[in-house]
Amino acid sequence: MPRPPHRLVSTCVGTVTAGLLATGAALAAPDDDPPRGSGSAMGAYLGYGPPGVARIPYLSHWLGGREIRVGHTYLPGDQWSGIEGDVDFLADWAEWRRGDDDRMFVLNVPMQARNEDRVPDWQVAQLIRAGAEGQYDRHFRKLAERLVSLGAQDTVIVLGWEMNGTTYTHRCAPDPQNWKAYWRRVVNAMRSVPGQEFKFDFAPNRGTDAIGWTKCYPGDDVVDVIGMDSYDQGPGRTFEEHVRQPYGLQQHVDFAKAHGKQISYPEWGLFRNGDNAEYIRQMLKWIDQHKPLYHTITDYCPHGVWRCKDNPRSAKVFREAMGEHKPSEPTPTVPTPAVPTPVVPTPVVPTPAVPTPVVPTPVVPSPQVPTPQVPTPDVPKPDVPKPDVPKPDVTVPSTDPEPSPGVSVPVPPDPTPSPQPTRPPAPKPDVPKPDVPKPDVPKPDVPKPEPKPEPKPQPNDSREWCLPLTFGDWLNSLVGNQSFCFRFDWGEDSGFWPF
Fold first, then answer.
1. Where in the sequence is the domain holding 493, given as residue range(s)?
2. Could you tell me if residue 409 is inside a domain?
3. Model confidence pTM above 0.70
4. Which residues on neighbouring strands pair with residue 156, listed in sequence order?
5. pLDDT in tens, 317-372
6. Contact residues for 285 (Cβ-Cβ < 8 A; gap 6+)
7. Which of 297, 322, 347 is the last residue of a domain?
C-alpha cells in the first residue's frame, strides 16, 4: 500500500518519562549482536492478487530457500462490494493458504467505503455513528461468509488499520467512543458466521499521530493480536527514539503483554531516510527479541529490500539476516592420482597426388537445317480469243433503194465512206483463282476458259446479221441470251449481197 506521510508530533522529555513511568515498562533496546533472523512467521507484501502470489517463491529463492509463511494483501476500500470481498484475487490467496497448513493469510479490511477520499472529520463522525448503530453489519457478514466458503476461515483480519492517523475514512479520532462500538459490531458480525476461525488484529501507527492509539482500543474480547505499522520516518530520527517515544515500539510491546495478546508488525520498512541499512538491522533485532506472531515487510519502492533496487545496502543486511543458512558439512577432499596418459604418435600417411585427367570437351557441330524453297507455281494466263467481226463489202448503189421498215439509212453526201457496224464487247471469261500449292503438292489444274459462243449461223438468203451479246454467266441467267442484229437492205439485184 502507498504510504502517506504521517503527522509529526512534538514531544518533550517530561512527557516521554511520564508515559514510561505510567506503563512501568522496562526499556528493551536491541543489543549489539548481529540479527539472526526470527522464528516468527515471515512474509512480505508483494502485490494485491495473482502477481503477489506468484512472487512468493521468487522471494524465497532470493533468501536462499527460506520458507515464506505469510501471505499479505488488502481489500479495496473504494466501494462496499470490495469490502465484502467481491474481488477476483481473493480466491488466489485462499488457494495459496490451503497449500500448506503452516501458512498464514493476513488480510487488511477497511471499515468504510471511500476509505482514501479525504473525507472531512464531521462526515467521518457521522459514518462512525452509523456503523456503531449496525448499519454496515451486513457487509462484513458477507465477507466472513465468502472467506469461509473459500477455505480461508482462519484468516488474520487487520481491521481498520492505522486508525490513529489522519489518512483513512475509518480513522478513530473524530469519534473514539463510537469507533470502538463500531469495531465491536464488525467483529461480532463476522464471528456469527458458522465455521469462522478469524483472528482480529488491532494495528495502529507507531507514535501518537492524530490520537494516542490506546484511546481507540475496543477491548480484549474483540481483539486477538495487537499489531503496529512502523516505517523509518518520524516521529523520531533514530531507531532508539522509535523505541522510547510515547506510543512507540516499547509501549506497544508492554501494552500487548499487559492485555495478554500477541504482537505483530503487518507493515514495516524503509521510507524517509532512504537506504538506511542500520534501521533494517535494528528492526530485525527487535523482531528477533520480541517474537511477534508474524511480520511482513512492505516490499516495493521506497520501502522494500528485494524489489526496490534503490536500497542495496539495506537489501544486503536483510538477506544476510533472513536468508536460510544451512550448516554445511565439510566434504573430504580425496586427491585424484594423476595417471600419465601415454602419447601415441599418429603416423603421418602421405596422401598420393592423383592427377586429375583432362577430359577434352568434344566439339559438337551445330546442324545446319536448310530452309526449304517453296516454288511459286506458274499460273498460265488463258488466251481469250477476240471475236472476228466480218466486215461486209458495201457497194454504193447507183439507185436509191427503198428503206426497209424499222431501219433508217441516211443518205451520205459522199458515197465513198461505208457505214461501220458497231462491234459488240468481247466477253470476259470467268477465270477462277488457282490455289497456291504447298511443297510436294501437285499443281492444280487451271480450268481453261470457256470458248466464246459461236454466232448463230445466218441463213444464206438472210439480209439480217445478228451478233450474240454476252453479259456474263450471272446476268445472262437473268436476261437470257440476247443478240444484236442489223439489216442490210440493198436488194438482191444490187450485185453486192454475198449470199
1. 424-432+448-499
2. no
3. no
4. 106, 199
5. 999 999 986 554 444 454 555 555 555 555 555 555 555 555 555 555 555 545 55
6. 30, 31, 33, 35
7. 322
